Structures are given as C-alpha cells and as structure tokens.
Amino acid sequence: MDDLSSKQFLFIVGAPRSGTTWLFEMLSEHPSVVSLKKELTLFSSYLAAPAKRFEDEVQRYEKHNWRQGLSLLYDRADFERGMRSIVNDVYSRVLDLKPQATHILDKHPGYAQHLLLMDRLVPNCRFIHIIRDGREVAVSMMRAKRTMNFGAGEVKGAATDWATHVRAAMQTGKKLGADRYHEVRYEDLMSGTSEHLEEIFRFAGLPVEHEQVNAIASENQASKKLVSRGDPSLKALRNVPGGIWKNKLALEERYLLDRYVGDLLCELGYAEQGWWALGPLDKLSMAMYPFRVRMRRTYRSLLQIWRQPIASRIS
To answer: For residue 182, what are the β-bridge partners?
Structure first.
C-alpha cells in the first residue's frame, strides 16, 4: 500500500438491506472522500476465496506434507504481498477519480464476513458497521427476492443471512477496538441523521462542519432516498416503530424468525422474549405448531413412498 500510505481507508459493512448503500452515499458526498459509488466487491468476491484456499494448502502442507498449490513457492507473507498489490492497484484507480481526497471509501455487505482479511491487507483501515432490526431486514430480503431475484426468499435464509453478517462484523470489531470499528443503528440514523452522521465523520477522521453535515443529511433524508425496490409499500411503514415486520410478517414467519435469531434480536435490544406473539391467541395458535410440522413431514414422506413404483417399494 506504499502509494496510498497517506490515505485513510473507510469500509462500510452490514447485512444486506440494512442501509449500507444509504450511508455509503452520504459519506461519499464529503469533499475529502473518494469512492466509485458502486460496489467493487473486491474482498468478498475476488480475494477471500483465494486467501482461504492458500491458507488451507499451507496447513495441509504443515500437517500432511501436502505437495500441491502455490504454497510450494510462496509463504504467507509472499502471498499476502501479492494480494496487497492487487488492492493497491484497485484503489489507486479509485483515487484517480479525486487525487486530492484524503479518504478512500468502499462498501459491500459481504465485507462483514472478511474484516480480518481486510485488516491484514489494508492496515489501519476503519470499519463502520450499520445494524438494522433483523425482522425488517428479513422482510426486505424476502420482498427483494420476489421482485429482483436478490437475496433469500424465505424466513430461515433471510434470518440466518442477517445474523451471520451481524455476528461476524461484531466479533471482529471487538478485537479491532473503538478507534477502528464503529457501530451505528439504522433506526438511530433514521431519526437523527445529522447527529449520527457527524459522529461517523469524527470517527472516520473527516473534517466536520455543521452546515455541511446538515446539508448532506437534508439531501439524503430517508423520505427522499429510501424507497425499497423490493416493495415500495415498505416506505410508508418505515417511520412507524415495528410497522414493517408487524404488517408484513405472518404469524408463522414471526415464530420461525424468533426460533432462528430471537437470541440476537434480544441481545441487540430489538426485541424481548415472546415478541412474535402480538396477542394471546397467537401463542395459542402456535402451541401445536411443532406437531403440525411433524404431521406435514410424515404426510409428505408417505405420499412420496406411495407415488413410487410398486417394485421399488417392495425392494
């Protein structure tokens, strides 16, 4: 990173549908920041897999005298030096868009799972992790799948995607410390955009001018910028606490989401135990849910056996 050693790198991370693009656009408007204003996916798409493959080869060689792959010619330092040269070239091209910039900004939800790799390849970079209520994220993911063929299309996939991204970023962020890792809640950014944007600028080491921050926040108000392509009807519910998940998640979806990620929702303060039941009848209705699931599975299994040719059933 010799050519870029004087620049501060900023990376926005977070689960898909959590507001990463919205925050990215606001930070990109700071005059000291340069960004491509598109997702490069450099670490998640191009570097994470080769880095993992190389490390696997090194460990196999050390344990089993593995004789295959680039680990025969390169040690870890050599290989990472090669990856750093790729990183240097990519962001040098970004910097060419605004050579006077002091900060280079990039973002992609997938980066949340690769903070350790990014930390090794871009020393002293800073991470801004935006976290959103997983119930709203699940709704947005499922709607996006139906209309744009993007993301998970059912509760389990949407919930686990959210939890995987959030937990990965939080765990690594704790190791990096407060001077390298900063969390902001989507809901807080919605209700106090100027205040929290100013805090993020300070964390990033960017000059802060109140008029400038207010202008960026005003131009990027959620009411102007946040229109879900997955489901435009979500916009009207965004300012109502719990409005999205209460209106868009069916009882069974709420129940399942709680089983998959209820612990993380409670840990983050988004929910309390039993949140999925909006009334006493909901708990009564779901009391027999496990039994109904087992019965459906049994029925499907029997139906599948019945549809098989007689010869295969006998054998």
So the answer is: 128
Domain count for the chain: 2
- The 10s digit of each residue's pLDDT in 232-261 is 667 666 777 788 999 999 999 999 999 999
Are 181 and 308 within one domain?
Answer: no
Per-residue pLDDT, 228: 53
Residue 90's contacts (CB-CB under 8 Å, 6 or more residues apart) are 40, 42
pLDDT, position 236: 66
Q: Is residue 252 part of a domain?
A: no
Q: Is 43 exposed, middle or buried (0-12, 13-18, 19+ CB in 10 A)?
A: buried
Q: How many CB atoms lie within 10 A of CB 114?
A: 23
Residues 6 or more apart from 270 whose CB is under 8 A from it?
133, 134, 135
Evaluate whether 14 touches 165 at the Cβ level (below 8 Å). yes
| 61 burial type by CB count under 10 A (0-12 exposed, 13-18 middle, 19+ buried) | middle
> pLDDT tens digits for 194-220?
999 999 999 999 999 999 999 999 999
Q: For the stretch 185-199, what's the b/e string if a residue is b when 16 or more beta carbons lie within 10 angstroms of its beta carbon?
A: bbbebbeebeebbbb
Residues of the chain under the 70 pLDDT cut? 1-3, 224-233, 235-237, 291-303, 305-306, 309-315
| Residue 255 domain-assigned (yes or no) | no
Residues 217 and 285 in one domain: no
Note whether residue 219 is domain-resident.
yes
Beta-strand runs (E) in 1-102:
8-13, 33-34
Residues 301, 159 share a domain: no
143 and 19, same domain (yes or no): yes
Rounded-to-integer distance, Cα 306 and Cα 27, Å = 60
> Would you tell me how many other CB atoms lie within 10 Å of the CB of residue 253?
20
CA–CA gap between residue 81 and residue 92 (Å, rounded): 16
